[in-house]
Description:
Elements: H1 5-8, H2 21-33, E1 39-43, H3 50-62, H4 77-84, E2 90-94, H5 101-111, E3 121-126, H6 133-144, E4 150-156, H7 164-168, E5 171-174, H8 180-194, H9 200-210, H10 214-225, H11 232-239, H12 244-255, H13 259-271, H14 276-295, H15 300-303, H16 309-321, H17 324-340, H18 349-360
Parallel strand pairs: 1-4, 1-5, 2-3, 3-4
Helix pairs in contact: 2-3, 5-6, 8-9, 9-10, 9-11, 12-13, 12-16, 13-18, 14-16, 14-17, 17-18
Amino acid sequence: MSQVLYRKYRPQSFDEIVGQQHIVTTLRNAIKTGDISHAYLFSGPRGTGKTTMARVFTKTLNCNSSAQKDDVCLKCDICNQLEKGSFVDLIEIDAASNRGIDDIRELKEAVRVSPAVGDYKVYLVDEAHMLTKEASNALLKMLEEPPAHAIFILATTEPHKLLPTIMSRTQHFDFHFLNSDEIKNKLQGILTREKRILESAVLDLVTLASGGSLRDAESILGKILSLNTPTEQVVRGILGLVDIIKISNFIDFLIENKKDDALNYINEITQTGTDLEQFIINTIEYMRKILFLKMSPSSEKLIAKNFTKEELQVAKKQTDLLTEKKIYGIIKQLLNASQDIKYSPVPQLPLELAVVEIIGEE
Length: 362
């Protein structure tokens, strides 16, 4: 069975990590100077590289064969073991499954044991916010008096759920979503190594669908590469993405206050198989870009990355025709519809009601 792309091309050194350069620089400097903290907190959205950063940090700390202290050789036993996931001095704990006081007590006993191979024993606690209150208090005691050889890395998507006392005893790094250029460059590198070619428009769709998560982008790319002819239209269907032309046509009806045309259009796209929930989500994102163009014309360069030249011209024209109040009203009603559609017995009803409210506001 072929390996999934995000595992096959997981970064093995700091130099290979995409984005999060503020974190890479700080950790490398800490290793250079020997100013290593006993506890770190990696927080941020899923798929942004928290676990990968923890593994590369562990590898760099324990690799003694590299010419540079803040780098890895990728050849020694420690580097090979970490690449294969068999390094005994990196203990990964899923707090969602091992969240009780007994699990942390077992960890407390294990922490006392010196590293078997490397210089440091690293404990990576994933989804740390899932620990029970009792387990969190037990973990806190370990963070207060850790052995010199032990390093704790807590990874979480919800840092606000951690005990404040735990957060105060860690060095906190905030991971963020990657920008479109960072993701596209990484995907293009994978395509080169896989000896595959994709249309630029398809790569743009993958980047857009990833939402800034590199892991999601690599997973989507793997799915697309399994197709014989991954054209733009085929990929849109697989990803459930709605054509921007459909969205801009709908917005035209709202701009021109054509209530009947807008309602008929909703039923028309429903009958042709458009996923209305996804249509609403994509329309909200489209209107968000319209809002940026309206409030800050200088944002055009940034927004243009998500449009073709023709689509951008249409969006700019619609921006000129819309007032800020109208944009706010459309977004507000679409947000309501995006929630209501989950429970509506008639899928198109929440969007139809949104149209009535939007046009009625003028």
